[in-house]
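TA notes, week 10

Several of you asked for a full example with nothing omitted. So below is the full record: structure tokens for the whole chain, then the designed sequence directly under it. When grading your own attempts, check the secondary structure regions first.
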């Protein structure tokens, strides 16, 4: 029995996996997965009774909190088909994911908003001014005087 143990470091950017080794096993393969992300490490026997591996989680999705460690020993009689020791570990409850509403606003978002909002305002003002001027006919002063009605009524024959 390999009694697999897993723990997150205090900064949550690495996962420590340890397991007991068997006297007759020369090599081990450790597979750690979280969702679709997987990492495989091949290890040789050492003089220690427990083998320890630390995985850097910086390249893993930040939402990963349910890990599965699989220890595959290599014995001469069963080769790569030996009994595997699988240990699932859920770190979600001890380390809840950040609430997206309480997270900080990124500087990129601030710059985009500060750039897009003024441009939209300028376009809206220009559109309003252009449309308003087209609605009113232009008033031009005329040099001709409008025809004046006759002073006497027209004569009927």
């Amino acid at each position: 029995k390999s009694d697999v143990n897993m723990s997150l470091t205090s900064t949550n950017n690495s996962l420590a996996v340890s397991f007991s080794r068997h006297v007759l096993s020369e090599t081990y393969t450790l597979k750690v997965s979280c969702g679709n992300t997987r990492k495989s490490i091949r290890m040789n026997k050492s003089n220690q009774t427990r083998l320890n591996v630390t995985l850097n989680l910086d390249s893993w999705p930040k939402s990963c909190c349910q890990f599965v460690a699989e220890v595959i020993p290599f014995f001469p009689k069963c080769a790569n088909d030996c009994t595997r020791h699988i240990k699932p570990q859920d770190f979600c409850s001890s380390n809840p994911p950040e609430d997206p509403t309480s997270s900080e606003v990124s500087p990129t978002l601030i710059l985009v908003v500060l750039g897009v909002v003024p441009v939209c305002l300028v376009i809206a003002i220009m559109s309003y001014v252009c449309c308003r001027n087209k609605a009113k006919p232009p008033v031009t002063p005329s040099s001709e005087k409008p025809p004046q009605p006759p002073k006497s009524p027209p004569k009927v024959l």
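The beta strands are 5-8, 14-20, 27-34, 37-44, 50-56, 66-74, 85-90. Use that as a sanity check on your answer.
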